[in-house]
Amino acid sequence: MHGQAVEPRVIAGRYALVAELGRGGMGIVWRAQDRHIGRFVAIKELHLPDGIAHEERRVLEERALREARTAGKLNDPAVVTVYDAINENGTTYIVMELVEAATLSTLIGAHGPMPPNQVVSIALQALSALETAHAAGIVHRDVKPGNLMVRPDGKVKLTDFGIAQAVDDPRLTTSGSLIGSPAYMSPERIHGHEAGPASDLWALGATLCYAVEGWSPFERSSTASTLHAIMSETPRLTRATGVLGAVITGLLIADPNARLSGPQARAMLSSIGNQPTPPTGIPPQATQQYQQPAADPAKKKRNRVLALVGAAVIAVAAFTGGIFTHRAFTAPGGTSGSQALTYGEGAEVPVFGLYENTCGLGDVAPTKLLNSDTREECDKPHDFEVFDVIDTLPLQSSLPDAAYPGVDALKSLGVARCEMTLNSEWIKDGSKLRLTTLIPGEKAWTKDKSGNADRKIWCVAGNKDGSKLDGSISTKKDS
């Protein structure tokens, strides 16, 4: 009968489905009204792809309900709140906060890349959401531009917490295809390893690259070429410079053990807001919202130094324009046979007095003295070459009493950078070389009475098989 109103479908006797907001491979998202209290909500009606066995489907749906209920306990301004999880007539429904905002992918598609300072604000809010989830034992597994919603006031909401973990596991396949968003899958997930917090951070790095550069860094014309790009290419950053570029590069390190952690990335980005003249365009409330908790002065100084060390080491990679590849980080643990040693008084290598692009004789090993007596011309047979040097602090004079960041922090940052250079186009036959990363010991780091300190990290390499090198390993000398 014409003109007769159609009653909306009601879920659980409470939620009236008003309009479809969108749909994808995993289901339909509805705008709905909670008839008990009158508010509008978003409801995700879960539809798993065809081809999944009945028992596997049941397990996934149960896991989705369990994880959604867990996600409902998260308390962070950047997390979309989960209100309810329902299984009715064999279908799973997740009831969530309705966010009146466009996704990051929609905004970039319509308006192009965002200003870097706006991306910094988005990054800080997304990091806060991820840290809250990870602390609760929840891995998102589907961080991507389509799951980041940006309101007109600059506030960010990260959607699908707890839901993606249940339905977007790379180990679950249907007809040989990966379930999920391949362009934002970390290298370790493609290798079949279990996703963890580091996987979410890699996906966030790719998402931030998309936001500031205007293009998805690894998305290609086919799934196969996309996965190949993730495993073998590094994005060429043109708009993301400085700390933001360093953070994106650090989050996209392929080895999850060398990748920036959430607190490291947040500390680096927060340092921008601590400058005398903060960047424009970052909402004031967002800046206030992500201040570090109060801590004792010594700890705060140590954290600041660690953030600066991270920025200094990783920024170099950001500025090189994509010359590095991911080859060094395809397996946890770094380059086969590599080692990291401390140098300076009381350290593993008591004396180190060589410079970049110098060569030498003998072993680079504990108790060895590496100085002018061991030096050899690079065009003569030699055992090792110092092929790179890293300034850990950009302005050492501004931090005369900088606290020692610790051996683990310096090793992590130093090995990551040295391996990137070793496996880049700057080094000949890097796969045949054994890396030694030399980091300053605590006494070398600390300034003496004359104001001298050695805070550099040195990258040294020799042949893995122990044979002599018969020329420089650096292509920079040939250019």
TrEMBL record:
Stretches the record annotates as Disordered: 271-297
Residues binding ATP: K44
SUPFAM superfamilies linked to this entry: Protein kinase-like (PK-like) (SSF56112)
E.C. number: 2.7.11.1
MF term (GO), any: ATP binding
Stretches assigned to the Protein kinase domain: 15-269
Lineage top rank: taxon: Bacteria
Residue stretches of biased makeup (Low complexity): 283-296
Keywords: ATP-binding, Kinase, Membrane, Nucleotide-binding, Serine/threonine-protein kinase, Transferase, Transmembrane, Transmembrane helix
TM region positions: 305-324
InterPro entries per record: Kinase-like_dom_sf, Prot_kinase_dom, Protein_kinase_ATP_BS, Ser/Thr_kinase_AS
Protein name: non-specific serine/threonine protein kinase
Taxonomic lineage: Bacteria, Bacillati, Actinomycetota, Actinomycetes, Pseudonocardiales
